[in-house]
Please model this.
Amino acid sequence: MNQPPIFLEIERQAKVRRIFQSVLEPCGVWDQVKDVEFTLRPEVIVEPTHSKVLSDAILNHMFPHAPKPAELFHYTSIDSLKGIAKTGLLRLHWVHKRIDQGELEPFAIKHRLKGYLDSSESEPYFKTLSKDLFYISLTCPGGGDEFELWRAFALGGTGVRLRLLVNPSRAELRKIQYEPPAGTLLMELNSTLAAEGEPPFVPWTVSKIGAFYLPSTLHREDEVRLLIKRYPGGRDETEFDGQNRYWPLPIGQHNDFCGIRLLEIQCGPAAQRRDVLSAIAGTPFETTVPVTCAPQP
Model:
């Protein structure tokens, strides 16, 4: 005798819950989410639209928040410093600027997010998504290969290193994961679901998760990202520079996305101090921010 559909649904809910518990309990996540509900569809498992408890728990386990406020470095050129000093703004560029350099797509492939890769009707969704994610790359003091950081991001050491105090509120500050060999928690969860004949779990936060994940081939630095996501119908403070969109954040001024203070400007090992001083001349940085020489890498 066939069971009524409601009983089949109850059995499937119990089965999926056991699978989630088997994966999430060993890493300490299950206790945070054990009362969560699931919406079971033929092709995907999601949380109800009113909840992001499980999605947030998985995101925070995979990509922990950096401590805040955090003292971080940003490497850049003299020309960029000049623009930052003139405007008093730090620009968070959209991920779309680097979409062909390993952004979002590797995450979608590794985590079997077919909907993000489908290009049958238009461009793949991960490319569309990249136009609503805005970030700036930072690094922890003492982290990464300093010689490589100066070479790659400060024109061979002719630029500067900005020492910043970053205190996010609505913005997100997390360390990048470089394609860990053992995989991620979400990969383990979805592999276990697949082995039991169930579709993947897709967190509501997946559109942000991918922005903190890069291929192992790009593991050149200990990168921390400050990220803002633009939502349809939400606040949009972006501007256009003629080629790319960016989200400007004021330095030294209150805002509800992220407080940023410029503590020090460090001249690169091949930089000319007079060029750095010229770049900030006539701006508030000239009298409020010390200019020093960075230690040799």
Remarks:
- The mean pLDDT is 91.
- Residues 86 and 129 are 31 Å apart (CA to CA).
- The longest strand covers residues 258-267.
- The radius of gyration is 22 Å.
